[in-house]
Amino acid sequence: MALQRIVKAKTQKGKRILEQKESKIYENVKTAMFIKGGNTSLAVTQVLKELHMLKKPHAVMFKKKNITRPFEDHTSLEFFSERCDSSLFLFGCHSKKRPNNLILGRMFDYHLLDMVELGIDSFKSLFAFEGVKCSLGVKPCLIFSGEAFENDIEYARLKNMFIDFFRGPVVTNVRLAGVEHVISITTADGKIYIRNYRILLKKSGSRTPRVELEEMGPSLNLAVRRVHLASDDLYKKALRVPITAKPKKRKNISRDAFGTKLGRIHMEKQDLDKLQTRKLKGLKKRKSEQRANASRAKKTKTVSEES
User: The domain 29-239 is classified under which CATH number: 3.40.50.10480, 3.40.50.10300, 3.40.50.300, 3.90.226.10?
Assistant: First the structure.
């Protein structure tokens, strides 16, 4: 059994860095590494740059080339992950056997969890589209289309990886004017189509604006090549959530299909004879009824005394 080296901080800055890397109840926004392989084409380099622009500020771009093959040996990626405190990576390379190659992957506890190899069939740059682009660091709206994302385990895991990669920070409230970016990911016939749109809010004559989508790029057509998935036990361990992070369940409160909150109230049995109602003339008893009730009550009293 290999001994694990315990790293101790010698300065206050090093202490803060180690504290940031420690496990947390609520994890930070996932950072992505963009890594160039030993040999890259112009298309791969441009894709890495533009996806890095979309992922900013939670992204790290490696300037130097790294001669590594993730499917044969992923130790260097695990080293970079621990060094940069990044749990996502996008590796780009180019060869005769696998031209214009992208490898999308993610880590768990600085060890490889799963990764998918994608080939670039066609690419249209961000700068090939006219018009204004969305703001930097905007949280995108993700749209997935295609039956494979629901029925195929590999495509379902790939969908989960795309959500991890593009989701951005977790927010509780969303401002309508702040929703500017839409990423549409479609699968059909073994291909992945990624399109980026900018949301335009235009006048509609009412309080609700008319929404239009304008393609802003980049546009990618990808083909799935090789897939490396984590085992069921490791994947289940990666999905484990601490008890303190789970929302506390409130008793007797539920929601229906439309999201309306419903509550159940438990009350003691009420005596409706003593219930105070609104005093109206029409509800008053007549004098004859009052006399009959009084005499009936008097008779029952005498009978009970005699018995």
Answer: 3.40.50.10480
